[in-house]
Amino acid sequence: MAYFHTRDGCSLYYEPIGFELARPVVVFLNGTLQTTMYWKVIAEALKPELRALLYDARGQGASDLGDLPLTLELHLEDLQGLMRHLALGPVCMVGLSHGALLAYALARRRPQTVTRLVMCAVGAGRTMRSRLIVRSWSTILRKAGLAALVAAVVPHVFGERYLAANAKVLERVAKAIVRRNREPAVAAHLAAMAGYPALRSLLGPVAAPLLVMCGSDDPLVSVRGAIELADKSGGRHLVVNGAGHSIPVEAPKLFVETITQFLSGRWVDMPEGL
């Protein structure tokens, strides 16, 4: 297991995949309650086209929470520190939800560090429903604990089609998520998110080629918001019909094919919906 130690002594777990190849590097950024396990199958499928770097942000998976208050700026500092530690230079980035916000902020503030950017399950503005859902998660965690929170989260982060097809294994999925997370870290993460700047306040042209992917059945992100994000950033958008918030898990074949082409620079005629 490899760890990067930040300036304040926080240990961040990271995992390079395919680094023996002389190919561009793709950094995968986790969403809330996700760990590097979420991306492993995707990252392996990208070889030999691309190398991949997986890492757990502060408080996620095998990484420490640390003593500093969690902020978007601190996450950005950690990410850039890890990239310098590994001497990566400019990289492609793929982020989902919280990870997509982090990738976007880095692409806007340090455009020289990002060559291509894929953002999943995020939009320019949050709907009132999504705000209330996320706000309820902190309450559930505080009053009933991590297992209860995950039980409440699962119906919100997967689309109806995936939930119906995987009804028999959803309990095991929930237990795996609980096992990979720690209650104090999740509480700190949710509290920090409440203080993040709104994504709309960060909007502007992105120098790197940008693809925004959203699911048509995502209660947390509206298609309209995803389209607005792409339009105001100079990127393209792709709506995955029937998918919810977890596109890489719900439509893995489509996701791998799409990002392989996009990140390799072979995308010629991108559709607006599938």
Strand content: 15-25%
Which stretches are low in confidence, meaning pLDDT under 50 for 5 or more residues running?
Answer: none
Give the number of DSSP strands.
8
Net shape? globular
Q: What spatial order of strands do you see in the largest sheet? A: 1-2-4-3-5-6-7-8
Q: Which secondary-structure class do the elements indicate? A: alpha/beta
N-to-C order of helices and strands = EEEHEHEHEHHHHHHEHEHH
How many DSSP H or I helices?
12
Helix content: 40-55%
Whole-angstrom Rg:
17 Å
Detail the topology: elements first, then pairings.
Layout lengths: L1 E4 L5 E7 L7 E5 L10 H7 L4 E5 L16 H14 L5 E6 L1 H12 L4 E7 L7 H17 L1 H12 L2 H6 L4 H10 L3 H12 L4 H4 L7 E6 L7 H11 L2 E5 L6 H4 L1 H12 L11
Helix pairs in contact: 4-5, 4-8, 5-7
Label this structure with key terms.
8-stranded mixed sheet, 44% helix, 274 residues, alpha/beta, 12 helices
Any overview of this molecule?
This protein has 274 residues and is an alpha/beta fold. The chain has twelve helices and eight strands. The protein has helices at residues 40-46, 72-85, 98-109, 128-144, 146-157, 160-165, 170-179, 183-194, 199-202, 223-233, 247-250, 252-263; strands spanning 2-5, 11-17, 25-29, 51-55, 91-96, 114-120, 210-215, 236-240. Strands 1-2-4-3-5-6-7-8 form an eight-stranded mixed β-sheet, sandwiched between helices. α4 runs antiparallel to α5, α4 runs antiparallel to α8 (183-194) and α5 (146-157) crosses α7. The longest helix has 17 residues, at 128-144. The termini are far apart. 42% of the residues are buried. The mean pLDDT is 94.
